Amino acid sequence: xxxxxxxxxxxxxxxxxxxxxxxxxxxxxxxxxxxxxxxxxxxxxxxxxxxxxxxxxxxxxxxxxxxxxxxxxxxxxxxxxxxxxxxxxxxxxxxxxxxxxxxxxxxxxxxxxxxxxxxxxxxxxxxxxxxxxxxxxxxxxxxxxxxxxxxxxxxxxxxxxxxxxxxxxxxxxxxxxxxxxxxxxxxxxxxxxxxxxxxxxxxxxxxxxxxxxxxxxxxxxxxxxxxxxxxxxxxxxxxxxxxxxxxxxxxxxxx
Length: 255
Ligand code: NDP
Prior knowledge:
Layout: E1 12-15, H1 21-32, E2 36-41, H2 44-58, E3 62-66, H3 72-86, E4 91-94, H4 109-137, E5 140-145, H5 158-178, E6 183-190, H6 199-202, H7 205-214, H8 227-234, E7 245-248
The structure holds NADPH dihydro-nicotinamide-adenine-dinucleotide phosphate.
């Protein structure tokens, strides 16, 4: 088996929330491996700017779409637009996600529902929207971005941790449903990466030190360090892997 198995030429990858942070790195990495990519944001300009930057850096075709992934109609429209423009979808990366941190007794229902609908309901909506297409083609790769906090708990993240644990279980069940159609479904579980999502921790010296102490490698991840695992899960290199959760967390959950 040569390095050819990592190549994604001719494939089309849809990355939700691919306009910044880990999603942008994943989308750019897939394009570097040869895929055409679609990135989304709730804001059209942000998605289009990121798509243009990816196209310029990689020479691949890239499109930006405005989508709120918690809205079933917008998700269905997103998939139809991509199919019209690109003809097929080979790779879906369910990346869009949010975190709201509060002690349990202060957690309001609105915040709870927003975290669950963005982190857990949206991957369900996106998978449902591409499943028929991937089944018909008897080919596909679905990557759900879970978290080390889908495995380990952390105080004041009740909604986030439970949503990400749910993503790992969703991954297993859908993997079983789609396996006979040659569609693989895996989760990727990032650990602490220095992105906008973690601004509250990065800006708080005490919380930051708590994080460093718990990361075996004693440093935050650079978002670029998620690229290799993404290409692996999206490519033929992972052809015998489905229903799995690949942890990329600097050793946090090894403890
Ligand atoms: P960022 O906050 O940097 O980016 C979040 C992305 O999600 C943005 O592109 C944002 O787009 C998009 N998004 C949020 N809500 C919606 C929505 N309703 N509809 C569409 N898009 C939405 O976060 P990260 O890059 O750090 O995180 C990406 C994923 O990785 C998340 O699922 C997160 O839980 C997970 N993760 C991150 C870790 C980390 O340490 N950074 C660790 C473990 C997991 P926009 O605001 O432009 O609409």
